Every structure is written in structure tokens, then in C-alpha cells.
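[job 4471] stage=fold_predict status=RUNNING
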Amino acid sequence: AQFWGVDLQGLNLSGFDLSNCDFEEAKNLKETHIEKAQSLQGAIFNGVDFAGLNLSGIDLSNCNFEDANLEDANLTHVNLTGAKFEGADLRGATLTGAIGAVLTGAILK
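[job 4471] inference complete, writing C-alpha cells
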């Protein structure tokens, strides 16, 4: 499914399989309970605002976070194998126990 630039305010994505969905530039994604989705593997989150969101324990393998805002996000014990972070803002993000993270091109400071 493609959600390019869509305003997702008020939508509840809890329990849905969102594998390989495209959320590029989607708005209000933090308010959708996306952290409770059944699966997010391979999803595209380019330009999405996840600032301060708790994504702990989620399998985010093969996701694309190009130019996404993950500032102060909780990525504790997250699987980031194959995930891309070119231009993503990870300042203040917690990555304790995250596996497979290659943060080439990410903003860390």
C-alpha cells in the first residue's frame, strides 16, 4: 500500500501488517499507533516525523528512513538489519541493544 504524503491523523494502525508499505512524507504518523503494528519490515518512511516515538523492540529490518526525523526516538532492542538512514536525524535517539544498525549518512550530533 502507498500512503505518499497522506495525512494519517486519527487512523489506528495497531495490529496491521504494514510490511513494504510506502509512507514517504506521510503526516501525523506518530498518532496512528504504528508502533503496535504487526509488522513494519521493509516499509518506507522517507521524510516521516518519528521524533520522540517509542519504537522499542520492533523489527524495522530493511526499512528506509531517508531524511526521516527520529530525534529522541526510542529504538531500544530494535532490529535495524538492512535499514537505511541517509540524512535521517537520529540526534538523541536511544539505540541500546539495537542490532544490525548501519548508520551511514545519518545525523547523529
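[job 4471] summary: Residues 3 and 23 are 5 Å apart (CA to CA).
[job 4471] exit 0
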